[in-house]
Write a structure and sequence with these properties.
By secondary structure, the chain is an all-alpha fold. It is 63% helix and 0% strand. Helix 4 (85-95) crosses helix 6 (109-128). Belongs to the LOB domain-containing protein family.
């Protein structure tokens, strides 16, 4: 799933002519508490689409932010529920509503939820760290993984010394 989302992000970044940084970050992964990103289940997304776009409930977060009427076929309604407006605000601030609309319309419906969650995470990280974004978090986690693998190798070596003594 990660490589699929990374592929979507790279193609989207190329369409926007934005650079993709792959260098090491100096920030740590633990410095990102309180993210506004939520992972909506498909049932919740369907419920949000039916309540927000039908006009019986409140409009989706995107239509509310853009100050327009939420239509029944609103592309944003299933993915930006009215109870989490910051998710759309961050995506709009980084990518723009028009670009997100184009991206969602190009994708198959079953791919859209993952794409929106990926865009929301990238937007959140891009606002926190404008240079590296989520790539900085990924590189920090990869560094920690390499360090833990080295520690595990050293511990196994030390244990192997004691096995022959018994």
């Amino acid at each position: 799933v990660f490589s699929f989302l990374l592929g979507i992000w790279i193609s989207f970044a190329r369409k926007l002519d934005r650079p993709i940084h792959r260098s090491m970050a100096s920030s740590s992964a633990s410095s990102f508490p309180g993210s506004v990103i939520t992972m909506a289940s498909s049932a919740a997304a369907v419920g949000a689409a039916s309540s927000g776009a039908a006009g019986t409930g409140s409009p989706c977060a995107a239509c509310k932010f853009l100050r327009r009427k939420c239509q029944p076929d609103c592309v944003f309604a299933p993915y930006f529920p009215p109870d989490n407006p910051q998710k759309f605000v961050h995506v709009h601030r980084v990518f723009g509503a028009s670009n997100v609309t184009k991206l969602l319309n190009e994708l198959n419906p079953y791919q859209r939820e993952d794409a929106v969650n990926s865009l929301a995470y990238e937007a959140d990280m891009r606002l926190r760290d404008p240079v590296y974004g989520c790539v900085g978090v990924i590189s920090v986690l990869q560094h920690q993984l390499r360090q833990l693998q080295q520690d595990l190798t050293r511990a196994r070596y030390e244990l192997s010394k004691y096995q022959f003594c018994i």
